Amino acid sequence: MSAEKLNPSLPHYKGHRDRLRQRFIQGGAEALADYELLELVLFMAIPRKDVKPLAKNLIKHFGSYKNVLNAEHDKLAAFDGLSETSAITLKSVQAAAHRLMKHEVMNLPVLNSWARLIDYCTATMGHEKREFFRILFLNKKNELIADEIQGIGTIDHTPVYVREVAKRSLELGATAIILVHNHPSGDPKPSEDDIEMTKQICHALEALAIVVHDHLIISKNGHTSFRSEGIL
Q1: Residue where a domain stops, chosen among 54, 80, 98
Q2: Residue 208 and residue 41: Cα distance in Å, rounded?
Q3: How are beta strands 222-225 and 211-219 bridged, if at all?
Q4: What kind and span of H or E run contains 96?
Q5: Domain assignment of residue 232, yes or no
Q6: Would you give the DSSP letter of residue 129?
Q7: Interior CA angle at 93 toward 129 and 76, to 5°?
Q8: Which residues lie closer than 8 Å to 24 by C-beta, 6 or more apart?
Q9: Closest CA to 155 of 219, 82, 70
């Protein structure tokens, strides 16, 4: 007999929440639809309300479960039915996923974990509205020893200072680096400025015996590897 029938005074959503939690415990995330997984997250932020309609509306509005978590904080907080606390809860789930992905590539030979690295860069940069320029620093075993954002720009430009790239590489004792930046436009094709900037960094680091393994351009629609394209 359901909890609602045993105690008719219980809110109708209480039994639904219990059943959804049990399905998750028994079958994991694969046992739930995207909106149901989103419900589980919203349970923590909205304890006394039926959040199924809200979860479905969020996915309908933003297009997918992934897009809900990737949405900007301000847009989530302004969504009907969500509060500041709810928006922070959703963004914390995204941040936790990114942190887990980062731990899965840190201190490992990057060239042997290339697919994971691409997934990590896409998850953390692919949906950003501004350009971010980051550097992945590697040791002599090609293990990832540091992952740092070096610059934040506008929708189509990020200032990059070659001297700062060289300086930070030396400070960390890196013997190789991978350059990564995103294109908010969704087009991962490198611009002439991207290519010229990469050449300047390669030239500067060559004198320091630091190798530039690749330059990755990340977008929501895919990525481009300078190495694979023969640019590097």
Answers
A1: 98
A2: 48
A3: antiparallel
A4: helix 84-105
A5: no
A6: S
A7: 50
A8: 31, 32, 37, 40
A9: 219
27-74 pLDDT tens trace: 888 889 999 999 999 988 888 788 999 999 999 999 999 899 989 999
Range of the domain at 208: 106-225
The number of distinct structural domains making up the chain is 2
Question: Looking at residues 149-170, what average pLDDT do you find?
Answer: 81
Residues 114, 218, single domain; the answer is yes
The pTM for the full model equals 0.76
Least Cα distance to 178 among 148, 155, 207 occurs for 148
Q: What angle do CA 24, 19, 34 make, to 5 degrees?
A: 50
Nearest Cα neighbor of 122 from 105, 140, 139, 145 is: 105
Q: Take residue 177 and report the two structure tokens written for it.
A: 């680096």
Whole-angstrom Cα distance, residue 146 to residue 139? 9
The answer on 120 and 138 residing in a single domain is yes
Q: Both 54 and 113 in a single domain?
A: no
